[in-house]
Structure formats: C-alpha cells, structure tokens
Amino acid sequence: MSTGSRSRWPIAGVAVALAAALSACSGGSGTPGSAGGDSGDTAPAVPAPKITISPATGSAKVRPDKTVVVTAADGELEEVTVQAGDETVEGEFDSTHTKWTSKEPLKPSAKYTVSAKATGKGGPATATSRFTTLKPKVGLEVVDVTPGIKGETVGIGMPIMVRFNAPVQDKAAVEQALEVDAEKPVKGAWRWIDDQYVIYRTAKYWPAHQKVKFTAHLTGVKAGPNTYGIEDHSTTIKIGAAWISSVSTRTHMMVVRRDGKVVQTMKISAGKATTREYTTTSGVHLTMERGNPVTMISPGKKEGDPGYYKEVVNHAVRISNSGEYVHGAPWSVGSQGRANVSHGCVNASPSQAKWFYDNFHRGDVVKIVGTNRILEWNNGWGFWQMPFSKWRQGSALES
Questions:
Q1: Choosing from 252, 327, 343, 361, which is the catalytic residue?
Q2: What's the predicted TM-score (pTM) here?
Q3: Looking at residue 35, what is its pLDDT?
C-alpha cells in the first residue's frame, strides 16, 4: 500500500512542471496573433485596382456629345484607348492618373471600344467597355466652302464662306468647331448670315503669299435638337499676291498695284449716273468671278422698254451682285480716261481689260471712289464695307 502511494507523486510533479513550461511559452498576454510557431496569422490581401468606365458596356444610343470617363480605385491608370474603327478619341489624365476624360465629341452612329489598364499594389488590372452612339435625326455637314477650288490662288480680301446642309440652332457650338489656321495669322471673326450660312472675314487684309487652312471639326457637335455633326471638313486656301486696284470715277483712271508696286495704269469709263442703276458704287469691292463673254441685260426692263439693252461683253470680271464688272468696251474707248458713259460698269480698252481678266483672282481688291452711291456690305462680296467692330457682332461667340 505504501509503495503504491509513493508511485503517484512523481507523476503529479511532472504535470506541474509541464504546466509551468507552457505558461512560460505563452508569455501570459493572451493577445491574439502574438503567439509564435504554427499559430501565426496571414496578412490581409491588397485588392487589385478597380476600373470604372462610362458609358458602361452595352450602352446604346449614347449621345455623341457625352464625355467618356474612366476612373481607377486602389491604383493608377496606365493606359486608356477609345476607338471606333481606326479612329482614336483624344483624352487626358488628371494629375493623380486616377481619371481619364475624353476631349472631343464622339462620332454618331458608331461602335466604340474603350480599353483601360491600371496598376497598383494589388497588381495590374484591365477593363473594357463597348457601346454604340445614336443615329441623329439630322446629320449636319458642310456642303460648300468658298473658296474651295483645288489649286486656286485667291486675293488678300478673300473671305471664307461656309454653307451647311441644315439649319444650325446652337451656333456657338458649331462656330467653336470652326478653325482657321494661317501661316501668317491675322485677327478675324465669323458672322452668321442666316441659320445655314456663316462667313469669316479678317480685320485687315490677309498677309500675302501664304496658306490658310480651314477645318470644320463638326463630328459629334450638337447643333440643335436631334442634330449632330456627322463628319469633319477641311480646305486649304492659297493666298497670292496683294493685288489692289484703285478706281477714280472723277479722274477716269484705274491704277493697279501688285504687292505695293504699280503694274498697270488704265483709262476707264464708269457709270453715267443718270439713274441709280447706272451709277457705279463706291467702296471696297472684291473680284468675284469672270466670264468671256458675258451677256448683260438692263435690270428691271424688258425688250421694247425705254433704256432696254442687251450687250455681249468680253473679258468681264464681276465686282458686285448689282451688275458691276470690269470689262472691255471697244465702243467707248474714246470716252475712257475723260468721261463716264457706262451703265454702271468700269469699262476699259479691250487690251487692258484682257490683261486685267488674265491677271486677277477671286478675292482681289478693287477700291472705287467718286460717286454718291455706296456699295452695300451684302452686295456681292462687299463685306469690307462693314466696320470690323460691327462685323464681329454677328458672331455667336463674340460679346
């Protein structure tokens, strides 16, 4: 019995010693995660960047003037591309590279793909969105630009005249999309003549011998309710020498200068001024078109009426819409240089009229003085008759 009772004491001692050893390993803190060995915790995972694209994938009938926006959370955007076919939309990142915003309108009736890449501590990420823009009820486009003849050289007074296929309600938005880029820049402004017709005129004549590029960045521009630009239009205009002709109806002379140098002096006969129609208009004219021959018929009269005439003239250069030309007149050579006997045109000898016809371009300047009939600003291309300060008031952007 005594032996059995002695045999239990060593066992109890071992248990106490083991408990003490375990207590020493735990440190007595009981704080989770403080134990070593097999019980250590794993650090939480860092999330990958989250990319958000607007318009979201699957969007349809997206307005072309809607801005494409791409953002990244938990990272920075590395690359963003927005494409419709082979056309890429320009955009820019913010200062943190967590946001990208498109800078130009979208093309109507087009399928777009947006691709984005981002990087962060959680690794790289990619995202894609595919959407379709709406088809506008009215597609706005440029149907005519004057001057627009390929290879044509024009004068220093030439305006840029743009006509659209449909009325423009938001003129400011469309005008903002019209760009004039000159090699020798000079101040100018647009003036809306009506809802479909707008004209650009410089404050002073174009500097001679240069190229001017006109671009209508119309694609996606909202011009009115359900009306969007459907394509851009670009034209390069060549400005030639500074041809300026000075006509005096009092001295019956015309002096022609090219880049400031006199190249021709012509005896002329102007309108006889017995009626308003037969009075040559004073002011700054531009050469508009030419013909050889041109048939001229008395305005407002029919055959048999007093004063009716129908004449065929050679080497005629139009300078207004009220029937004024510089042209040859062999029948009035005796009066040229001394009297005004025409129906309102500027007549010259056949040889000098031919020289003028052969050398001038659309948009060259013809200044006429000496009569009491003033050229109206909207008579032909009489736009220089309007002070520039008033001209610019016709702009949708000028205050």
A1: 327
A2: 0.83
A3: 36
